[in-house]
Fold:
Amino acid sequence: MRQVADEPRMEADVIVVGAGLAGLTATRELTEAGWTVRLLEARDRVGGRLKGYQLGGGRVADLGGEYFGDKSTAIAEVARSVGVEGFRTFDAGQRLSFIEGRRYAYTGLFPWRMGPATLADFGQAVLKIERLAKTVPPESPWGAARASTFDSQTFWSWMQRNVATRTAKAFLTMAVEAAYCAHPADLSLLHVLYYANASGGFRYLLEISGGIQKYRFDGGAHSIPAKLAARLPDEVRLGAVVRTIEQRSDSVVVRGDGFTAHGRWAVVAVPLTLAGRIRYEPALPGFRDQLTQRMPAGSAMKCLAVYDEPFWRAEGLSGQVTSTDGPFRVAFDTSPREGRPGVLSAFVTGSAARKMTRLTRAERRAAVLDGLVRGLGPRAGRPADFVEQNWLDEEFTRGCYHGFAPPGVYTSFGPALRTPIGRIHWAGTETGVHQMGSMGGAIDSGRRVARELLARDADEFDPAAAIPAAVRRG
Amino acid sequence: MRQVADEPRMEADVIVVGAGLAGLTATRELTEAGWTVRLLEARDRVGGRLKGYQLGGGRVADLGGEYFGDKSTAIAEVARSVGVEGFRTFDAGQRLSFIEGRRYAYTGLFPWRMGPATLADFGQAVLKIERLAKTVPPESPWGAARASTFDSQTFWSWMQRNVATRTAKAFLTMAVEAAYCAHPADLSLLHVLYYANASGGFRYLLEISGGIQKYRFDGGAHSIPAKLAARLPDEVRLGAVVRTIEQRSDSVVVRGDGFTAHGRWAVVAVPLTLAGRIRYEPALPGFRDQLTQRMPAGSAMKCLAVYDEPFWRAEGLSGQVTSTDGPFRVAFDTSPREGRPGVLSAFVTGSAARKMTRLTRAERRAAVLDGLVRGLGPRAGRPADFVEQNWLDEEFTRGCYHGFAPPGVYTSFGPALRTPIGRIHWAGTETGVHQMGSMGGAIDSGRRVARELLARDADEFDPAAAIPAAVRRG
Structure:
């Protein structure tokens, strides 16, 4: 970590706040176009919600985002450009599911032993969601024909009317908690449909081989931001916690403890909640600020249990364990490409995360291992290593996988999501269109802010006129 | 405003952040018990969401909170203690209501000309809400018998099933937008019931003479915090924007631009969103932080039109104008006790505020005056003075009247609302019990934190043990 206190006055065309995929992409695009950029990062690492863990022997695992699918064209392209290869997620053998206390072993998307009525009910619900999702345009969900109706209710309310059986409801709740890191009660139906459509479909979100979990990155997804950072002309300034962004008539001044950066423009590439925690001078219009008050991060922890080998594979098991009410909603085999060591990643999400975050670290470890033993037998209880990543506790993330919208937010405040305020432009996966909420959304947003800035004529810029009607102040 | 930069090292038993009613009450109670307190306020005034406006000739108006009722015992008692008198709200003459474009003149709670079916429908809905509200305990709404069901749906969803007629829905939506500053789509049903019960009843929230709007304060509600501040042993430190609160094993250090305050304990007495914008060292547990991400402030602006006299009174009108879709949801006669000058306060709340905040100041003025003219005739369009208070734009408030909960928040994160984290205790009307969300809730919360602190034995304090299980970290 380079000491920012030693840093002289920093100057660049653009000051970018946040060195996740969004900020790194914006910086890359702008520097390739010949602009100078200072990229500031609060942590001692780049990558944001992508974070690595050393398994020993040169092997690594991901403590944050790691999956992509055939529709994840943006992250695949960026990975290729820095020499990171994808490989197929391990997806052979039986899956295990604990649904309201009953154990099911199965292959495919859902346990057929749940019975034909439950299966038919779950199936029709997924089809309905799929059909509704297609009516929500990812570039402006608030513009959907039925946006107001979709945004006035929770997904839970929709389920009461559209899912008949208790077991299908429980299974769908589990799937949503795993994919959205929030309970159906928290989510606007509009957000559920928007994220599904932006991702490539609702079922696509849930699937492995046929979905967004089809591939992983050799060396870890977190190696992509690290390589992006290494190729930038200037070093990323780590440990730079931005506290204030001041806008002047012809410039921005970005300040933190012990540093000051001057630029013509600023890009804020952090989650909405964290963007709201920066102080702006002058203060941002209320219309923008109230949006940042209303898009909380999901609740997610990831726990990795490491074994000498993926012993479950020899027993004909995929390693996938799902549970409607256990300590995690889903665990996957996330062993490295070579298959050694064996790694299980337990995704403690939604209501599970909210319970588990209130326990001690030791209690959480015991609970997760209990859940794995329940599915995969006693060997699962004796890992060689165990690590947890509590994204709720991380000061510069404060939740995963992404920021979601409770009811009423997009239809009231949606237009503030991407609209620049004077010299400040907004990035981050929540502002992406293609694969909003995933790695692709971050890249999409980084490219968009770069395009926005390159299109601005600095010489003719009038900050007052630049505040669009959507968010202008009186 | 006293310059904080000149301030030597500040030391006290307790550092209180925020000089609204909550922080002032906590400071008053603690200093009366012999403790030393430093009260820090970001603005150049005390009072938070209570703010005054000079009408000239020594007369004043309130730009923020101003009403109270017979059940508002806490604010009435505090007002008396500083010599501020209440008086009856003007409530004679006909009320006007514009419901889906139609104009109604009436007396009582609702326009009887809406027709018997609509009236019966509205009446049964209010009774149902009243009955459900009584089942939600204000000290822990998440403990209600049906908390999970109430907290999984929006008030909009509840209305779809429980209000049959379109006009009753529109009228109820208007009432909720006026009382909660949010659209039914934004609100957890549980929050609607909780606020109603904590306030003294749902109908009580909507009524003037029989409700929480029965009285106002002579000299303005804002004169109460001013008088409270004047009686404290130490001056309130104005212009002190707190940026960081550091917890040590035996103390807290509260820092802002140009000042540092040392105490044994800290009280944070600002809205939840703003509490989340302070940086804490060590960082707060995720369980608490995610709550602060999830309780946005309502959307409210207040516009005052001032006339030589309240001309509407002579015409047999009360000055009350409500509208389901106009630029404000309700306007009231808020002339001073003496009846001169005439003042109309237009409450631009919920969806109205979200539209209006995106207009220019001139456009807003024109829209509000149009709405008043529509109700009260052309004289309403020629005020001697006009002032707007946009609470969304206020950096150190960011919305009014109070912070509300979308679905899923209280049942998941409710216990974090009042639970101290180490040496930091939480106040503010959102953490109050009696009249949560109003002036009474702020006082209630200030008294509670004072009790909490007085009950702690500083000598035997172990900060690790003091973090309760509800929010402890591993």
